[in-house]
Structure formats: C-alpha cells, structure tokens
Amino acid sequence: MSYVNAFIVGGLICVLGQLLMDGTKLNPAQVLVIFVTAGVVLTALGIYEPLVRFGGAGATIPLPGFGYSLAKGVFKGVDEKGFLGIFTGGVEATSGGITAAVVFGYLMAVFFNPKSKS
C-alpha cells in the first residue's frame, strides 16, 4: 500500500505543478521556487510531516521534499549549534543529494553529447 500512497502523493504534487504552469504565466523556474518554499513553510507549520509519513518517497522526492529536507536540517542545526545552525543546518542536511546531482550530471555530460535546444 505504501507504493500506492507514494504514487498518489507524488502524482498530485506533479499535477499541481503542471496546473500552475498551464493555468498561469509562471515558468518552470518560478514553480520550482514556489514548491521548494512551500515545502519549507509547510514543514515549519507542521503540515508537511504527516504528508511525508503517509506518502513516503512520493512526498520527499519532489521539490517540496527538498524544502522539507532544508527545514528539517535547519531545525536540527539550531538544536545542535544554536544560532549558527540556521546557516549550516540546511546545507548539511541536503549536501549528499546536491553532491550526487552535480556528480551524476557531470558524468552524463562526459559520456553523452549534450545539445542545446535550438
């Protein structure tokens, strides 16, 4: 059942993003910022945590999940380091995912011939 929950939650997040791009004049970069910010705000308000428990990877993999990880990292950083944790907690919590994205993106560019859209 957890696979179904993840599919439903992740699918609804993606549908919301597509509706924002189709129904408004927002471009994909603006939707990205809105989703990450929404993930942070919903986590701070305690709303995103139940969604993560219900949807699992369907809630943590899309863009609001990145905001969720940032916020959780800041909370942990503040608990451990005080005021300095505000600046370091989010970076420490998400550094593994960011590093993987950079490394694998670089490897794909090395092994394949990237082309720009014309």
From TrEMBL:
Keywords (A to Z) from UniProt: Membrane, Transmembrane, Transmembrane helix
Domain of life: Bacteria
UniProt KW Phosphoprotein keyword: no
Transmembrane feature ranges: 6-24, 31-48, 54-71, 83-112
Classification via PANTHER family: STAGE V SPORULATION PROTEIN AC-RELATED, STAGE V SPORULATION PROTEIN AEB
Name of the protein described by the UniProt record: Stage V sporulation protein AE
